[in-house]
Design goal:
The protein has 14 helices and no strands. The protein is mainly α and 273 residues long.
């Protein structure tokens, strides 16, 4: 029900947050990793539990573990509570502020699954939820927040929000019939693609601002333009009339973006001109 690749989008940005803090060691990286994976597990498990009845009706999600009975609701709840406890312990072991803000993070992780039931702004809320990753990595490392790390958080928010709009295209027919809210439902598939492109353009600007504010070298700028190229490819792969390549765009391309940015931020921080 919960796969490691569910963490691949957010986890690298927690590492980048740690890296940009200039305060890191093995203990911090291990605790941040545990906190991120357990938090993501809480979010994904709750998402499956909350959407259980809807998933049974949606042809795309009917084969998931809960609808087919491969995983029981009771088991899902036990897993969620266990993941919650692991998350809180890891946050507590990092520092006091990380522990206090962990409850704010949990609020977003728990509530984002409900937003599509009443607002087409659900994509923005999901983006804001995933934007906690770099903030959490930074706070976990140093115990305070720096204004500049919010540029990276805003990149994540608009990047995630943009591809979540594209991902929602495949459920357009079901969502229209069942009262599920999204930008494709509100504005139609063509305008939804425009919204997604604008989101990704704004994300690219915030990525450049992050690199500039942290005075990273040209490797980081090269990485930013590689990300831009990958985003363009992602949009070219998504055709509202033929969504067969949506999973390639969603999982493969966005995974490449995360990995590219971890590598180039490392190079941008540690290799001198």
């Amino acid at each position: 029900m919960i796969k490691f690749e569910h963490s691949i989008f957010a986890l690298p940005f927690a590492y980048i947050g740690v890296l940009l803090s200039n305060n890191y060691n093995l203990k911090i990286f291990v605790l941040v990793t545990i906190a991120m994976i357990s938090a993501r597990s809480v979010a994904m498990a709750l998402n499956r539990i909350i959407d259980y009845k809807t998933d049974k009706l949606n042809p795309r999600t009917q084969g998931r573990e809960l609808p087919i009975g491969k995983v029981q609701l009771k088991e899902a709840w036990v897993f969620t509570i266990f993941s919650f406890i692991v998350f809180e312990i890891s946050a507590y072991l990092l520092n006091p502020l990380a522990f206090k803000l962990s409850f704010v993070a949990l609020f977003f992780l728990i509530t984002y699954s409900y937003t599509k039931r009443f607002t087409w702004l659900c994509h923005i809320y999901l983006g804001a939820t995933d934007a906690i990753a770099p903030l959490g990595g930074f706070v976990g490392a140093v115990g305070y927040l720096d204004i500049n790390i919010f540029y990276l958080a805003l990149f994540v928010a608009f990047w995630i929000g943009g591809f979540d709009i594209l991902y929602a295209l495949q459920d357009l027919t079901f969502d229209l019939k069942n009262g599920v809210h999204s930008i494709p439902v509100k504005f139609g598939p063509n305008l939804a693609r425009v919204f997604a492109a604008l989101f990704h353009l704004v994300a690219f600007i915030f990525l450049l601002l992050t690199i500039y504010m942290y005075k990273l070298n040209y490797f980081a700028y090269i990485g930013a333009f590689l990300v831009l190229c990958l985003l363009i490819i992602e949009h070219l792969l998504v055709d509202p009339k033929d969504l067969k390549k949506i999973n390639i765009a969603f999982f493969n391309i966005n995974s490449y973006i995360s990995i590219v940015l971890v590598i180039v931020f490392l190079l941008g921080r540690f290799i001198n001109d």
